[in-house]
Amino acid sequence: MFLRNSIGKLFCIFLLAIVSANTRAQTKEYQIKAAFLYNFVQFIEWPASVFATTNAPFRIGVLGDNPFKGALEATVQGETVNDHKMVVETAQQVGELKDCQVIFISRSEKDHINEILSQLDSSAVLTVSEVDGFAQRGGIINFYLEGTKVRFEINPAAAQRDGLKIGSQLLSLGKIVETGKEEK
Asked: Percent of the chain, pLDDT > 70?
């Protein structure tokens, strides 16, 4: 009986360690993605018309479940882009984020990507996601994991279609993809 209880306790400790390690890895992944999002905006030019006023905030929207758990808010807190204070907004419907300059589309929205991109069509919004095939489907930047490293791919034609200019420094760091061209 003692042995069975000891093994049970050891097993529970082992499971807690695995869950804790996975949670820490996921937290770190989204801290990295938050830093990427902040840095992306430094290398992208939006049309002046995206701001209703000269003191309007620079809005980053998170559509669907928010995987950042406060990391994105912490990353942009007190930061500005061209004198526009950065703020983070979350929503479950794309229409609620219509004033955002960046929209991160969560995995929870993977079944609605085409509909979301259609609603944002020709809007000067940097669309970013982590859904497989996002950039090939017309999104602008897509995160993916290569082993344990966070990488990203860019669809420059989608950015141009939406009136955004991506700096060559950012283009040189990402993997370039085209709409409709799936990797083999």
From this structure: 83
Q: Where are the domains of the chain?
A: 2-176
Name the token pair of 36. 């990427």
| Rounded Cα gap, residues 7 and 52, in angstroms | 63
- The tens digit of pLDDT for each residue in 71-97 reads 999 999 999 998 999 999 999 999 999
Domain 2-176 coded CATH 3.90.660: no
C-alpha to C-alpha distance for 33 and 70, rounded to whole angstroms: 12
**Cβ neighbours for 163, distance < 8 A, ≥ 6 positions apart:** 46, 47, 122, 124
**pTM score:** 0.84
CA-nearest of 37, 152, 154, 43 to 100 is 37
Measured CA to CA, the distance from residue 115 to residue 118 in angstroms comes to 5
Tokens of 41: 């905006």
Tell which residue, 122, 121, 158, has the closest CA to residue 139.
158
Q: Name the token pair of 37.
A: 């999002």
